[in-house]
Design a protein that fits this description.
155 residues, alpha+beta, Sufe protein. Chain: A, elongated
């Protein structure tokens, strides 16, 4: 994962077509869009959520929760750079938060954090937060019926 991030970053920096891209976006946007350290899956997650938008982009969120706190979060995004930026931002905002506080993460917070997410792409923030909420619901359902976790099919 880290190698692909470095290769992508080097390509973006070396290609003059992307010069305006780098100038036109905030540091937070660039970091969240290009850094893929949180991208991936978690084996046997405590919570899992998936959502596909009208644009056909898909975000999956995997949660590891210990003592009611999100200790590890990973995402998988099949979509544009904006979708990756939003999913990564949700992961950053949720890391080490209590589950009760994680429900307060909103698409507006994601948009504000990124700073330069184009208005026509705000649906990407809704998509990422929606997948995250589904992972939180899944976690809560597993708390009510923990025996079901043993029968969960491989994600």
């Amino acid at each position: 994962m880290r190698r692909s991030w470095k290769l992508l970053w080097k390509t973006v920096l070396m290609d003059p077509r992307y010069f305006n891209f780098l100038q036109d976006h905030s540091r937070n946007y660039l970091e969240m869009a290009l850094n893929r350290e949180r991208e991936g899956t978690l084996a046997n997650p405590d919570g899992y959520g998936r959502r596909t938008g009208d644009c056909q982009d898909t975000v999956e969120v995997f949660l590891e929760i210990i003592n009611g706190t999100i200790r590890n979060i990973a995402y998988r995004a099949d979509g544009c750079l904006n979708t990756h930026a939003c999913a990564n931002t949700v992961a950053k905002l949720a890391q080490d938060k209590p589950v009760s506080a994680a429900w307060d993460i909103t698409p507006e917070q994601v948009i504000e954090y990124l700073g330069t997410l184009p208005e026509r792409e705000h649906h990407c923030a809704e998509l990422a937060v929606g997948a995250f909420y589904r992972a939180l619901v899944d976690y809560q359902n597993m708390q009510k019926a923990p025996w079901k976790r043993q029968y969960r099919t491989k994600l």
